């Protein structure tokens, strides 16, 4: 997976060094520092991180004729310091059980696959897991989640296409409580094009959950497709408003991802990043490790 992940990134500092190649060992004057800062922002690193890198490079603690290694190190250290603040695995600690994890995100972001990956992960940690097919707008979504549930070997509560998502969630919590399920993972519709309806539906799910367990949902995970770059940031904005996000999972970091967006998201929203998706199989979810990811990005 490490190779896969690495393959998905064109290192920010590679781009930077490429940009600087034309400067031919120029000193880090204001113009060069401007260029470095701009290149970092163009890599989606976020203005604050870019500003800190610039500041450190200008302080002259490194060789004045910047070597590739020096730049890489400074970028990696700054990236790691931002990411370390948000790297946090999902804890299963709700009492009474079940812990209810609501999974939200636009269609195509990798929501269904991420639910399957999380179910697989929790099962491996010996938790009893149940799924609820709360995305009733797409028959394909219900079918796809069902197939995953069978493959992983976890129970799933479904309803008819176009059915009431909150009703499915109600049934699922009742069943999960009855059989002693530790984690209930709830899929939801990702219809961002109809914000009002999405908001109403998520609010209704929350009301139903709250009646059965005032602490639920314990987690509201937003799934983001890293290949969408800056778009992922605007999705955080909208979903924070309509759903109250508690944490992020970034998918498709094995693809042609622009990993810098992780740093921008961390910098701007300070939401926990729980895990990253690095493939289409159920084992392809990695805990988010700030050091590992910063070394790959930078
Ligand atoms: P949903 O519409 O949000 O439920 O998205 P899906 O879970 O159906 O995923 C959409 C597509 O992205 C599918 O083809 C998945 O196999 C693929 N996918 C999901 N996560 C990843 C990932 O981490 N890496 C890669 N390469 N593909 C992924």
From TrEMBL:
What are the Signal recognition particle SRP54 helical bundle domain coordinates in residue numbering?
5-83
Q: Which residues form the SRP54-type proteins GTP-binding domain?
A: 98-298
* Keyword ATP-binding belongs to the record: no
Write down the membrane topology.
Answer: Peripheral membrane protein
One family name in Pfam for this protein: SRP54
Q: Which UniProt keywords apply?
A: Cell membrane, Cytoplasm, GTP-binding, Hydrolase, Membrane, Nucleotide-binding, Receptor
Q: Which annotated residues bind GTP?
A: 105-112, 187-191, 251-254
Reaction catalysed by this chain? GTP + H2O = GDP + phosphate + H(+)
Q: Domain AAA+ ATPase: where?
A: 97-298
Q: Which Gene3D superfamilies match?
A: P-loop containing nucleotide triphosphate hydrolases, Signal recognition particle SRP54, nucleotide-binding domain
The EC code for this enzyme is: 3.6.5.4
Localization? Cell inner membrane; Cell membrane; Cytoplasm
By its UniProt entry, which HAMAP family does this protein fall under?
FtsY
NCBIfam families assigned to the protein according to its UniProt record, in alphabetical order: ftsY
Q: How does it assemble?
A: Part of the signal recognition particle protein translocation system, which is composed of SRP and FtsY. SRP is a ribonucleoprotein composed of Ffh and a 4.5S RNA molecule.
Per the similarity annotation, which family is this? Answer: Belongs to the GTP-binding SRP family. FtsY subfamily.
Q: What does this protein do?
A: Involved in targeting and insertion of nascent membrane proteins into the cytoplasmic membrane. Acts as a receptor for the complex formed by the signal recognition particle (SRP) and the ribosome-nascent chain (RNC). Interaction with SRP-RNC leads to the transfer of the RNC complex to the Sec translocase for insertion into the membrane, the hydrolysis of GTP by both Ffh and FtsY, and the dissociation of the SRP-FtsY complex into the individual components.
Name this protein carries in UniProt: Signal recognition particle receptor FtsY
The gene coding this protein: ftsY
């Amino acid at each position: 997976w490490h190779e896969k992940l690495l393959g998905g990134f064109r290192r920010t500092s590679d781009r930077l060094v490429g940009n600087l190649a034309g400067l031919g060992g120029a000193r880090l004057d204001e113009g060069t520092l401007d260029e470095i800062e701009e290149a970092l922002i163009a890599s989606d690193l976020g203005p604050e991180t870019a500003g800190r890198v610039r500041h450190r490079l200008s302080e002259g603690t490194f060789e004045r004729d910047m070597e590739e290694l020096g730049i890489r190190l400074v970028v990696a250290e700054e990236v790691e310091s931002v990411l370390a603040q948000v790297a946090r695995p999902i804890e299963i600690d709700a009492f009474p059980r079940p812990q209810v994890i609501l999974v939200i995100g636009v269609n195509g972001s990798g929501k269904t696959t991420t639910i399957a990956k999380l179910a697989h992960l929790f099962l491996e940690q010996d938790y009893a897991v149940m799924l609820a097919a709360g995305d009733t707008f797409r028959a394909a979504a219900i079918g796809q989640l069902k197939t995953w549930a069978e493959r992983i070997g976890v129970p799933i509560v479904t309803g008819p296409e176009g059915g009431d998502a909150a009703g499915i969630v109600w049934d699922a919590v009742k069943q999960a409580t009855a059989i002693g399920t530790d984690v209930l993972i709830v899929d939801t519709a990702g219809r961002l094009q109809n914000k009002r309806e999405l908001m109403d539906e998520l609010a209704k799910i929350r009301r139903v959950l709250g009646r059965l367990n005032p602490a639920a949902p314990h987690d509201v995970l937003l799934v983001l497709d890293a290949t969408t770059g800056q778009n992922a940031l605007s999705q955080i904005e909208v979903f924070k408003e309509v759903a109250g996000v508690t944490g992020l999972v970034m998918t498709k970091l094995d693809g042609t991802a622009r990993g810098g967006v992780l740093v921008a998201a961390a910098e701007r929203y300070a939401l926990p990043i729980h895990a990253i998706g690095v493939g289409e199989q159920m084992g392809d979810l990695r805990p988010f490790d700030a050091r590992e990811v910063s070394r790959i990005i930078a």
